[in-house]
Amino acid sequence: MSRRQIHWLVGAILAIIALGGLALWWPPGAPASSSNLLGAALLASTVVALAVLLAEYLMSARMREIEDRNSLAAQERGLRREEAEEVRQRQRGERIDKWALQLMAIFQQDLRMVDLSGRDMSGLYLRACTLLRANLKGTNLDGANLNGAYLAWAYLGEATLKGADLGDADLAGAGLGGADLSGANLCGTSLTRADLTGAKLAGARYDRRTAWPEGFEPQDSGAERLET
Description:
With 228 residues, the protein is mostly helical. Helix content is 41%, strand content 2%. It has two domains: 3-93; 98-228, E3 ubiquitin-protein ligase SopA (Pectate Lyase C-like). The model has no long low-confidence stretch (mean pLDDT 83).
């Protein structure tokens, strides 16, 4: 039972008691008797109790209003922090050019959540780099070495990875819709839960260690299995 329902229930009981007291006390000006004295006492006490109950109800309503406002303010602050973090990551990505990125990759810099959408990263050596949840939409990764890279949940929609080395890379949950993986090395690559809708896999090579999304048939998309 909610607090509001309890207030209404107690108020109803007090109102009934007040009506009983009024009935015993009525009519006004009648000679004093135990009955009308009891009625007057009941009536007075229930009026006081109802006043206290009303004050408590109003105070509770005010406290709920303050709590709701504080909760909403906390949610708004949380959203602003998330938006600020997204802006910082986007600005960080914009400052990174191709060769600066190569230097960062050499020293194993953490590139998670970075926005590199539409960039030319062709031929870069990105072996074992962490690109968790990175935005690589439309990025040119042709011929890039991403062997052993961590690309889980990265977004690579419409990216080009022709001839890229993705051997032993982790692309679990990655978005590869419309991506071009023609001729890519996918041996030992984890593609579980990845979105391969419309992806081009002609000539892509894979082996028995490659983990595909459930129900996906790579040979139907032109991928070639290597027997090792």
